[in-house]
Design a protein that fits this description.
It contains ten helices and 17 strands. It is an alpha/beta fold. The structure holds alpha-L-sorbopyranose (SOE). The site of alpha-L-sorbopyranose (SOE) has 5 residues, from helix 8.
Length: 389
């Protein structure tokens, strides 16, 4: 690692996503030759003791319990927001107005109105060279980026149909405790925004098209759960008290893209046996691609122009230096994992800041996904009527 201009990061939040982002900030400058060096300067959290323990564990230099004080500091360049969605807008807008570059976890906000205000703040800040990005990290899994490259290069011909799913099962047990992800006032929505947002972003990223109308249904399968006694990872231990689940457990919708193509979408945390299956399959006029996060080092590719006798989905191992992001890591053929996407995200954000360019996905991209989420919710409340995004 060479000495470059530092970019001093303050991260607000220290839960599961805090660990993932910390890993990204720590590792990216050690594997990628970055134009500037991110420094893990301040970790911010409401609980002083837990924040200090997390900071010590992940290597943040300082801690604070006051994000306002932290973003007012002159020695902070980047604010990374990994809190539940209800605080994204307030922190992001204040940070942008203070001239800090902002990376914000997905979904961008808990409502379209908040996402609009954040996007307006981001656009005003961009005029002063201040950058912002939303953390749809899965775009940066090499096989997902490679899928986008193949589609853009015309290797599957014209896109005709899209199938996107994000399947998890960590709520299948009806006694699994409540977490903030099951509280609408904190999370905005349930499976729809937490994981459906990833499926929407990835399908749009890979195809290069945008959803313009949707027809959907949302359902809560377990409406009451034990309250959380102690959080661990996505869940934790249950207390004796019970609380109401106020979000959807399952989101199903059909969507039409701007080029007329139809897509089917499913987001659920009740897909028994499916742990983290974010899948996007795109059928084109001369071929198809299928990505599955549970097999993230591979991409399935069907080349319909190949000889009929040898045609079939081929499993391409996306582990070669010629593939996106891979050259920076291990010798050819060696695998990457869930956490690498966060290093790629840190890398892309730092490079865009250093180059004075607008990184993607921008807050405007995040707002567009928010509008899709909102349209699905409206459609569901309106007998699944087709709803314009
Ligand atoms: C929980 O369902 C979750 O942690 C999401 O919130 C993340 O965005 C996704 O990366 C994994 O699943």
């Amino acid at each position: 690692m060479t000495t470059k201009a530092p970019l001093r990061v303050a991260m607000v939040g220290y839960g599961f996503m805090g660990a993932a982002h910390s890993q990204g900030w720590r590792v990216a400058p050690r594997f990628f030759d970055l134009a500037a060096t991110p420094e893990m300067t301040v970790l911010v959290g409401r609980d002083a003791e837990r924040t200090s323990a997390a900071a010590e564990n992940w290597g943040w230099a300082e801690t604070s319990t006051d994000w306002r004080e932290t973003i007012a500091r002159d020695d902070i360049d980047i604010v990374d927001i990994v809190t539940p969605g209800d605080s994204h807008a307030e922190i992001a807008i204040a940070a942008l107005e203070a001239g800090k570059h902002v990376l914000c976890e997905k979904p961008l906000a808990n409502s379209v109105a908040e996402a609009e205000a954040m996007t307006a703040a981001a656009e005003r800040a961009a005029e002063r060279g201040v950058r912002s990005m939303v953390g749809f990290t899965y775009r940066r899994v090499p096989a997902a980026t490679f899928a986008r490259d193949l589609v853009a290069a015309g290797r599957i011909g014209t896109v005709r149909q899209v199938r996107a799913q994000y399947l998890q099962d960590w709520l299948s047990d009806a006694e699994a405790p409540m977490t903030w992800r099951l509280d609408k006032s904190l999370a905005g929505s349930g499976s729809l925004g937490d994981i459906g947002a990833h499926a929407i972003d990835l399908a749009q990223f890979i195809t290069g098209n945008r959803l313009v109308s949707v027809s959907g249904v949302l359902e809560t399968l377990v409406s009451e759960r034990p309250l959380l006694a102690d959080a661990r990872g996505l869940s934790g231990t249950a207390s004796d008290e019970r609380g109401q689940v106020t979000v959807d457990d399952v989101a199903l919708f059909t969507g039409r893209f701007d080029d007329g193509v139809l897509g089917s979408f499913e987001a659920t945390r009740f897909a028994t046996g499916r742990k983290n299956a974010l899948r996007v399959e795109v059928s084109g006029s001369t071929g198809a691609i299928a990505f599955d996060l549970e097999d993230l080092n591979a991409l399935q590719f069907f080349d319909g122009t190949a000889d009929a006798t040898t045609q079939g989905f081929t499993k391409i191992l996306v582990t070669e230096p010629e593939h996106p992001y891979v050259a920076a890591w291990w010798p050819a053929g060696h695998m990457l994992g869930y956490e690498h996407g966060f290093s790629h995200q840190a890398r892309d954000f730092v490079e865009a800041i250093a180059a004075g360019e607008q990184p993607r996905p921008s807050f405007a991209d995040g707002l567009q996904v928010q509008r899709v989420l909102d349209a699905v919710e409206q459609s569901s409340g309106n007998g699944s009527a087709w709803t314009t995004v």
